[in-house]
Amino acid sequence: MSAEFNWFPGHMNKTLKNIEEKIPVVDLVIEILDARAPYSSRNLTFSKILKNKPILYVLSKADIADPNITKEWVEFYEKKNNTVMVLDDKQKNIVKPLIDLINKATKEKQEKDKAKGMVNSLINVLVIGIPNVGKSTFINRLIKNKSVKAGNKPGLTRGIQLIHLSQFISLLDTPGVLPAKLENETVATNICAINSIKEDVYPKERVAGKLMQYLFNHYEGLIENHYKISPRLQRPIQITDTFIIFEMIAKVRKWYMNDDLLDYDRVIDAFMRDIIANEFNKVSFERILEVVPEEMEKASKIKNEKAIEDISDLW
Ligand SMILES: Nc1nc2c(ncn2[C@@H]2O[C@H](COP(=O)(O)OP(=O)(O)OP(=O)(O)O)[C@@H](O)[C@H]2O)c(=O)[nH]1
């Protein structure tokens, strides 16, 4: 699958331009990431244009992600000195914890302002994220809290909202934008899994195969129990093996095109629908060592060094 299929609608360019115009007044960026794919749901185009701004990552949908993997991602981002907030409880009031984290992440600016004699300086926060990561839900949770006000500001584009989180903190919400180029096939697959790309623009069979391979290899029993099948496949499976699984599901469901031809497309559609509807609750689609290039490189170096050591042991 090429990671360059055409999913980038024109209006996203306009939003990107709008975001660029706001950069000079931005003190902090909040990037909403889907906890099930925190690496793939970043927008690298944003990272480039906002590279000098402090960043606070909000990991949304952690209530439906694999908690152990989310913990690893939080540690990973915190180790890089990023502030992280995890949304793992839909009911919790997040206003106070968010204000505390914003203050922590903008401490340097606040101290600089204080040194210049400015007390209680204003903090402008830009909220960004790719489509469907839960930006509106996050903003609405803040607005629902009585002390938070949503306001209009002349000159703001339609779809961009200004929210007064406190007397001193304003959040500028922006529409979801995807990067114009996706890093690789894994990233493309994972953003399909979190439903940030419309189903009709990606190669569904290939994406479904990759996701089936991933879930089968990482979550023993999950696919077997969900579809009531018992494939005799040894883990880890290859993408070509997923054909056997999809066929078994079609057989169990008695989905045939005619007497002996299985309805493969129907199974693929059903599987993708199950992923998007979150039928496999508490799964994540990526781990650090599977997607972050620097970490993968580090790990492979360690492995190679170990291999050299092992050989030298023999001699
Ligand atoms: N389980 C769970 N679902 C969530 C959470 N946040 C958002 N959702 C769901 O995810 C879907 C997308 O959420 P939105 O808030 O509309 O996402 P968005 O980023 O604003 O999407 P765009 O408008 O496309 O940019 C909705 O069905 C939400 O109900 C969360 O923390 N947990």
TrEMBL record:
Subcellular localization, as worded in the UniProt entry: Cytoplasm
Record protein name field: Ribosome biogenesis GTPase A
GO molecular function: GTP binding; GTPase activity
CP-type G domain ranges (all copies): 13-180
Keywords on record: Cytoplasm, GTP-binding, Nucleotide-binding
Source species of the chain: Mesoplasma florum (strain ATCC 33453 / NBRC 100688 / NCTC 11704 / L1) (Acholeplasma florum)
Gene3D superfamilies cross-referenced by the UniProt entry: 1.10.1580.10, P-loop containing nucleotide triphosphate hydrolases
Lineage of the organism: Bacteria, Bacillati, Mycoplasmatota, Mollicutes, Entomoplasmatales
Purpose of the protein: Required for a late step of 50S ribosomal subunit assembly. Has GTPase activity.
